[in-house]
């Protein structure tokens, strides 16, 4: 019996995760799970002073995403497919970059304890884009808290994502990762590009 689909769409800030998630949900009629961002009371302070507010910010995200994973588990147990515009893996990506060594050690232990027995996605979609494109999309969507993000931060974040996705693939070789450049595969303006993505997803799911 094939597992109930659980797709996670990932990539750096502004790459188009939520847009693609909504398009996949519409195509397959999957339940959609969105990352909680605006509710984090520390995020605006984090972008102003990363060193001072990183631990509070990361712990808030971890607790909220843990709760969402519990919700996903309940849906999957009822055989309801899910597509999410993030995966909790991103917590380690951001935490490793922003926390001190001592903070990260504590954080990582809590992370692994919380994730015990919670569901893993059975497909990852990894979106990539150039830093100028990410900056432009961040500006267009107009979240005030994100307007102070430095290009160097996004550049390093993109490098970190590549590293962690490669590590994820080695650790979980049975979970397919579909890697897409969201500039070349313009799934918003080009129906053919979206159709190709949907075909890749369908092929991967049907051949598991």
TrEMBL record:
<feature type="binding site">
    <location>
        <begin position="137"/>
        <end position="141"/>
    </location>
    <ligand>
        <name>ATP</name>
    </ligand>
</feature>
<dbReference type="GO" id="GO:0019136">
    <property type="term" value="F:deoxynucleoside kinase activity"/>
</dbReference>
<keyword id="KW-0418">Kinase</keyword>
<dbReference type="InterPro" id="IPR031314">
    <property type="entry name" value="DNK_dom"/>
</dbReference>
<dbReference type="GO" id="GO:0005737">
    <property type="term" value="C:cytoplasm"/>
</dbReference>
<comment type="similarity">
    <text>Belongs to the DCK/DGK family.</text>
</comment>
<keyword id="KW-0547">Nucleotide-binding</keyword>
<keyword id="KW-0067">ATP-binding</keyword>
<dbReference type="InterPro" id="IPR050566">
    <property type="entry name" value="Deoxyribonucleoside_kinase"/>
</dbReference>
<dbReference type="InterPro" id="IPR027417">
    <property type="entry name" value="P-loop_NTPase"/>
</dbReference>
<dbReference type="GO" id="GO:0005524">
    <property type="term" value="F:ATP binding"/>
</dbReference>
<protein>
    <submittedName>
        <fullName>Deoxyguanosine kinase</fullName>
    </submittedName>
</protein>
<dbReference type="Pfam" id="PF01712">
    <property type="entry name" value="dNK"/>
</dbReference>
<feature type="active site" description="Proton acceptor">
    <location>
        <position position="85"/>
    </location>
</feature>
<keyword id="KW-0808">Transferase</keyword>
<feature type="domain" description="Deoxynucleoside kinase">
    <location>
        <begin position="7"/>
        <end position="202"/>
    </location>
</feature>
<feature type="binding site">
    <location>
        <begin position="11"/>
        <end position="19"/>
    </location>
    <ligand>
        <name>ATP</name>
    </ligand>
</feature>
<dbReference type="InterPro" id="IPR002624">
    <property type="entry name" value="DCK/DGK"/>
</dbReference>
């Amino acid at each position: 019996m094939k597992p109930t689909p659980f797709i996670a769409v990932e990539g750096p800030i502004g790459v188009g995760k939520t847009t693609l998630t909504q398009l996949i949900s519409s195509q397959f009629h999957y339940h959609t799970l969105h990352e909680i961002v605006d509710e984090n009371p520390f995020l605006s302070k984090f972008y102003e002073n990363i060193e001072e507010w990183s631990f509070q910010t990361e712990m808030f995200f971890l607790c909220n995403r843990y709760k969402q994973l519990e919700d996903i588990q309940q849906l999957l147990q009822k055989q309801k497919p899910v597509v999410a515009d993030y995966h909790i893996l991103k917590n380690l990506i951001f935490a490793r970059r922003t926390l001190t060594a001592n903070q990260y050690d504590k954080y990582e232990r809590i992370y692994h304890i919380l994730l015990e027995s919670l569901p893993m996605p059975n497909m990852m979609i990894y979106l990539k884009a150039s830093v100028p494109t990410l900056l432009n999309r961040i500006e267009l969507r107009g979240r005030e808290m994100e307007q102070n993000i430095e290009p160097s931060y996004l550049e390093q974040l993109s490098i970190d994502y590549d590293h962690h996705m490669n590590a994820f693939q080695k650790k979980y070789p049975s979970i397919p990762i579909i890697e897409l450049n969201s500039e070349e595969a313009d799934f918003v303006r080009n129906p053919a590009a979206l159709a190709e993505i949907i075909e890749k997803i369908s092929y991967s799911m049907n051949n598991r």
